[in-house]
Design brief:
The protein is built from 16 helices and 23 strands. The chain has a seven-stranded mixed β-sheet with strand order 8-9-10-1-11-19-12. Strand 8 and strand 9 form a beta hairpin. Helix 9 runs antiparallel to helix 11. The chain is globular and about 70 Å long.
């Protein structure tokens, strides 16, 4: 077994925090469903890793618990009339964990790093519209774009867009920085092992006075649903997410536990490799969509805490368009398969991006549904470490048939709900279009929509793009989940956001 990385403090103040926080009663443990992929937010493709890294890192802007943009390390900004130049005025007196001051050189160092294609960072596609970043003075940075981009501040507010200590980037180049986090955030790293633990402790020099209120947080990956629930019930954890749907009623009956059910912008879907037979045929893709009883899936795997998806982005995403969810119609599915030249079905593989219990239920359900129309699939649930091996492949190298996955727009806007998953520019290994789908209308309309600030014009372009993709069925849109979390009653200020990220800056544990 890989030994945990026990990271030494970079400054004396940080070391003091480790010593003081390690035994405090004001620490909490958070039980989560998956292992971490990385603690480098610019290289993370999953919400979980990004939301845990938020304990140590902050960006120029952020999103509050309601996904509204707020100023963080940038106090204000101006945009040029042509929409190409953003001038950012930075907060003064903010210190990195290594004792150096946050200034404009950090903005340049971080944005230059992510926009350098040779660094091969997962979030390159999020920021590749940045042409250059300049230092005007220590507290003013200027960002010039290749072309106007109306959702740019939303992009800077994405949890990937953090400020990492420039000295740490120099000392730990490439992928090394993931094991040596150094930011301006409310907590500093004490222990990190991607498959087992992230333990952070209070930053005594945090710029927001009186925060954080906790002495430390331990994020613990617990893929097994029943084990995660048991941790909360026995006091081993103070917050868990997600709560397995079948356990909600039980936990609601516990006098010392609060269960919260809230809307989300998390859509679960099955992506097809559209460059591989038989999934290059739209009739096959549509047939498998009709083969799935989404209402039953909501009950079987999510205990009713989900709704059938009716679009390629959930209703809570700004500019999303909802259609009519395709009904369960196995007869029509078999007819379409026959028309496509597969009257006796075929064999294929179905991979899951996750290995937790709920995901296992989903892919087993899908396996049964596909078998009922003659399509025999073998299933595999991936560990987080397998994602790169299996998915980040060029079209000619990809072995993917079908992938059960999910996505939430951590900018709150449609662009980041769709473009990373369905745009031609986002083909793997660059981004998350693992099925290599391409649609000229979608590509063109998204490009044009991002050039305008006219809301009506943008909505018309986005709606036409969504309709074009919906009609070609590059996915089976399955369900939009509810966010279900649970905590001990004494814990306040710890929230699950619409995208399943966490907001916990004001978290406090009371007796």
């Amino acid at each position: 077994m890989r030994k945990p990385f026990r990271l030494l403090a970079i400054s004396c103040a940080m070391g003091a925090a480790l010593a003081a926080g390690s035994v405090s009663a004001a620490e909490i443990t958070v039980g989560i469903a998956s292992t971490f992929t990385t603690m480098d937010p610019y290289d993370a493709g999953d919400t979980l890793s990004q939301t845990a890294a938020k304990s140590m890192y902050e960006g120029l802007f952020g999103l509050d618990k309601d996904m509204k943009i707020r100023n963080v390390l940038a106090e204000s900004y101006e945009v040029s009339e042509d929409g190409l130049v953003y001038t950012l005025h930075l907060r003064k007196g903010v210190m990195f964990h290594d004792g150096t001051e946050f200034q404009a050189d950090a903005v340049k160092a971080n944005l230059d790093r992510v926009t350098n294609k040779e660094n091969a960072l997962r979030r390159y596609s999020l920021y590749n519209n940045i042409a250059k970043t300049e230092i005007i003075d220590p507290y003013t940075a200027k960002i010039t774009l290749h072309k106007p981009f109306s959702a740019f501040i939303n992009q800077l507010a994405h949890p990937a867009g953090v400020m990492i200590c420039p000295k740490a980037l120099e000392k730990y180049p490439g992928k090394q920085i993931a094991f040596h986090p150094c930011g301006t955030g409310p907590y500093t790293v004490a222990e990190y092992n991607p498959s087992e633990i992230l333990h952070v402790v209070k930053n005594p020099n945090y710029w927001q006075k009186g925060l954080p209120k906790l002495d430390g947080i331990t994020f613990k990956p617990v893929p097994e649903n029943s084990t995660r629930v048991a941790m909360l019930r026995t006091g081993e954890a103070q917050f868990i997410f997600p709560v397995p749907p079948e356990q909600v009623k039980t936990l609601e009956g516990e006098k010392n536990i609060d269960v919260t059910i809230s809307d989300s912008i998390i859509e679960r879907y099955v992506a097809f490799n559209t460059k591989m037979k038989p999934f290059d045929n739209p009739k096959v893709r549509l047939a498998l969509d009709y083969a799935v009883n989404k209402a039953a899936l909501c009950k079987v795997a999510f205990n009713g805490l989900a709704e059938p998806a009716a679009g390629i982005a959930p209703a809570g995403v700004d500019y999303s368009t909802q259609f009519e969810a395709r009904p369960y119609d196995p007869k029509k599915a078999r007819e379409l398969l026959k028309e496509a030249g597969y009257p006796n079905g075929f064999e294929a593989t179905l991979w899951s991006l996750y290995n937790h219990t709920t995901a296992q239920k989903v892919i087993q359900f899908l396996q049964q549904q596909f078998a009922a129309v003659g399509v025999k699939v073998s299933i595999m649930a991936m560990e987080s470490g397998q994602r790169t091996t299996y998915l980040l492949k060029k079209p000619e190298e990809a072995k993917l048939n079908m992938l059960y996955a999910g996505w939430s727009s951590s900018t709150g806007e449609l662009d980041w709900a769709v473009r990373p998953l369905l745009a031609t520019e986002s083909w793997a290994p660059v981004a998350g279009n693992y099925g290599f789908y391409s649609n000229e209308t979608l590509d063109k309309n998204f490009s044009e929509a991002l050039l305008t600030t006219d809301r009506a014009k943008k909505q018309a372009l986005y709606t036409a793009a969504q309709k074009a993709a919906w009609d070609e069925s590059p996915w089976i849109p399955l369900v939009v989940e509810k966010n279900v979390s649970a905590k001990v009653k004494g814990l306040t200020g710890f929230y699950v956001q619409l995208d399943a990220g966490f907001d916990y800056l004001n978290a406090e544990l009371k007796p």
